[in-house]
Amino acid sequence: MTxxxxxxxHLEFSNVPAPEEVVKPTLAIIGAGGHGRVIADAASLxxxxxxxxxxxxxxxxxxxxGNWTLAGQMKILMxxxxxxxxxxxxxxxxxxxxxxxxxxxxxxxxxxxTVIHPRAIVSASSTIKPxxxxxxxxxxNTGTTIGAGCIINxxxxxxxxxxxxxxxxxxxxxxxxxxxxxxxxxxxxxxSVVSNNVRIGNDTIVGAGSTVIRDLPxxxxxxxTPARIIRRRTLNSEFxxxxxxxxxxx
Length: 250
Ligand SMILES: CC(C)(COP(=O)(O)OP(=O)(O)OC[C@H]1O[C@@H](n2cnc3c(N)ncnc32)[C@H](O)[C@@H]1OP(=O)(O)O)[C@@H](O)C(=O)NCCC(=O)NCCS
Hints:
The chain has helices spanning about 5-10, 35-45, 75-80, 95-105, and strands spanning about 25-30, 50-55, 70, 85-90, 115, 120, 125-130, 135, 140, 145, 150, 155-160, 165, 170, 175, 180, 185-190, 195, 200, 205, 210, 220-225, 230. The protein is α/β, with parallel strands linked by helices.
């Protein structure tokens, strides 16, 4: 999905013949919390979607305007058949939960959407996998791969030749230097710097404002400048998907 629809391209270049009418798909977003709404905002500005539907178990009273609507609980979406006219993205901030839900949706045959804010800068030689969301001011440089379900948040930059694992989250204002590897479901806190060539394992947390200058293993919490490990994470510790029970299967 490009960030600019053929219709818009036509409006900007009026000597181009009118395209066939393009019927845009619906974007279903799981989660109507802060992260889900930031995705919806980026999606609206991209002008790629006919309608934006939220599915959320916890906000039945929420009202939206324009082409945003609260369509009901998550189970309603899971009971629907996948269709070419609707794509889905998981708009939940918890990395483990987002990872699990995206896998379940894929298994049920849904097409997973990628949402890129029109003011993100994305190298043509980078790869952005399904379910990723790139927010306003994000910069993805050449040769970098952004994994499935990743969040590259507001004003975060990922430089050349990085590998960002599935469902990782690079928080607002972080700077990831060249040739960095970040594991699956790892969370880089806001305003952090990860120095070039560093490798960070899976399920690790880097605290806000940290500077990572050496490799970090799987499943640790590291903070400060330079970042030091303050503890190991266990499977049931906070920020883990096991904390949040959501049953999607029938
Ligand atoms: C790293 C983090 C997850 C740790 O949370 P926690 O496990 O609850 O840790 P605590 O608050 O108990 O702090 C433990 C120790 O680490 C220190 N610490 C925590 N976060 C720190 C940080 N970002 N930088 C430096 N030190 C930090 C605390 O001061 C405390 O030190 P002390 O034992 O000497 O008093 C959290 O502090 C953090 O930075 N979260 C990221 C927030 C963020 O970026 N949000 C963006 C959302 S889009």
